[in-house]
Specification:
alpha/beta, Zincin-like, 2 domains, four-stranded mixed sheet, about 35% helix, UTP_pyrophosphatase-like, YgjP-like_metallopeptidase, YgjP-like metallopeptidase domain-containing protein
Length: about 250
Amino acid sequence: MRVALLRRSAPDPTHLTVVHEGTSFRVAMRRRASARRITLRVSSATGEVVLTLPERTAVSTAQLFADAHAGWIAARVAKVPARVALEPGAMVPLRGVPHRILHWSVTSGATVATRDGTDAPIIAVACQPPHVGRRVRDFLEAEARLDLREAVTRHARALGRAPRRLTVRDTRSRWGSCSAQGHLNFSWRLILAPSFVLDYLAAHEVAHLAEMNHSDRFWSLLERLYPRVDEAERWLKRHGTELHRYG
């Protein structure tokens, strides 16, 4: 009796490598059952290159597709703002105002926004050197939480509705969201933008507590809560991507 042996195919690689004019680019590869063709995307926030392909498409075909678009990948990646590490000397905006990170002591202490001897804005950090980035990130998240809680409370009072929960995360696809259960979620990176932008996003999501859509009624309600809608939208369109370069 013959026994049929099934040969298991090798697992897909997690990424492909594409070279353009001597520079290598890492391309994440993801299969999607609903995909009908190969697509390429470069995140304007992080510069991550993602190739999505149908279930039955061969890896070799995906590699050929990526290679054929090497120039396109290079051009898109070049437009992504350079990353800024949260390290001593780095300039980081806080409520739209550039602050220099100053590591002034290795003895653990509070991280504060203040001014140096020349009256220049700084974020002063006191901790062991390897922890500077985490301390600055924690400080920025805490400041975002404070500002968002104040803004949400103010707009919710004006609307006559209250959210059930408010969370702050490092969201990538949207600056804020409102669930059907009344849970509001925001990106901590809004603390990097001018305060009127954060205030606008808080009003936007609070308005969804009454209108879970983007109908004319929603926009009318939002403009009553916060009249600077157009100004904030313009700022986000021009500068929003830059907020993702920090950290």
